Amino acid sequence: MQEKMQQILDDARRAIEKAASTAELEALRVQLQGKKGSLTQLLRGMGQLSPEERPRMGALINSAREDIARMLETRGAALKKEERARRLREEAVDVTEPRAFAHQGTLHPISLVQAELVDIFTGMGFEVVEGPEVELDTYNFELLNLPKNHPARDAQDSFYIEDNIVLRTHTSPVQARTMLTRKPPIRIVCPGRVYRADELDATHSPVFHQMEGLVVDRDVTMGDLKGTLDAFAQGLFGEGITTRFHPSYFPFTEPSAEVDLTCMACRGKGCRVCKGTGWIEILGCGMVNPRVLSMCGIDPDVYTGFAFGMGLERIAMLKYGISDMRLLYEGDLRFLRQFR
Ligand code: DAH
C-alpha cells in the first residue's frame, strides 16, 4: 500500500510538472483531489488494514495529500506568472511604431484665395462684412443706381426668386447694406458667392465668387484707390506687379475703371497667359457714384468713396495656373489635394 502511494505521488508530481497551462492544471487538480482521485480511493481501502497499521497509513496519506496540494499551488503560481508575462508580451502596443498617416483634408483653392485676399485687405485696415445670397432687388440693383429697365441689368442675367427677390448677381449689394447702416469712415471687403444665369464652361459658372471692396470717408480720392490696388496686387503676386487703369462703365461708380495687373506669368514680358500684352485684366472699380452715396444716406458733399469688385475664380486660376474653371467645382481629389 505504501508502495502504491509512493507511485501515486510520483505520478502526480510528473503530471503536475507537465501541465502546460492553468487550465490543464485545474483539470489535473480535479482528477487528483476529487472523489475519484487515486488518493481518495486509497483512503477508502484503509478499512482493510489492521488497526495498528491504520493510523500510520492515515498519516502518510494525509501528508501525501498535503504534498500534492503544495505542488499544485507552486506549479499554479508559476503557470499564472508565465501566462501573464506571455499575454503582456503578445498584447504589447509599440507606441513608437510609425503608422500610415490618416488622410488630411485640404482647403479649396477658392477658400485659399479668399483667405489670402482677406488677409491682405485686413492688413490695410479693412474689415470683412458679409451679406445674404438671396437678396432684395433694392440692394442688388436699385440702390446701386440700376433702376428697373436700366439696360445694365441685362448684362447680369439674374436668377429671380420672386418679383423683387433675386440671387445676388454680385457682392456689391453689401456696399449698399453697409452704407445704410453705418457712418463713415467705412473700409470693408465683402467676399461671397454670387449667381448668374450663365452656362458652365471653361471661364463661366452660374455660381461663382467675388470680393467687393468699399472705402467711404472724407477726402477719399482716386489716388487712394490706385494706391490700395497697387498694394493689393503686390501683396497677392509679389514685387514688381503694378496696376493699369482704363476707363470703363459701372452704374454705381463714376468715374469707373477696369484694372489690369502686370502679367504674373511673364512679369510683363508678354506670354500666352496675357496674349502677348503683358497685362491681365482683373477687376472693376471706381469712385462711388454720388447718387449711390445719397441713396444710401451718405452726404456726397461731405464724403467720397471708392469701390472695387473682383472674381475669386479668375484670381485662383491665374495664381495657380488653372486653365479650366470647371476643375474648381468638380471635386476631383487628385486636383484638390494639390492645394495645401
Ligand atoms: N459688381 C461688379 C460686377 O459684378 C464688379 C464691380 C465693379 C464692383 C466696379 C465694384 C465696382 O464695386 O466699383 O461685375
UniProtKB/TrEMBL annotation:
Record bears the keyword Amino-acid biosynthesis: no
Intracellular or extracellular location(s): Cytoplasm
One BP term from GO: phenylalanyl-tRNA aminoacylation
All copies of domain Aminoacyl-transfer RNA synthetases class-II family profile, residue ranges: 113-318
Manner of cofactor binding, per the entry note: Binds 2 magnesium ions per tetramer.
Cofactor(s) essential for the protein: Mg(2+)
Presence of the UniProt keyword Cytoplasm in the record: yes
Any Gene Ontology CC annotation: cytoplasm
Keywords: Aminoacyl-tRNA synthetase, ATP-binding, Cytoplasm, Ligase, Magnesium, Metal-binding, Nucleotide-binding, Protein biosynthesis
PROSITE patterns: AA_TRNA_LIGASE_II (PS50862)
EC number of this enzyme: 6.1.1.20
Coiled coil: none
NCBIfam families, per database record: pheS
Subunit structure comment from the entry: Tetramer of two alpha and two beta subunits.
Entry's family note: Belongs to the class-II aminoacyl-tRNA synthetase family. Phe-tRNA synthetase alpha subunit type 1 subfamily.
Name listed for the protein in its UniProt record: Phenylalanine--tRNA ligase alpha subunit
Natural source organism: Candidatus Avichristensenella intestinipullorum
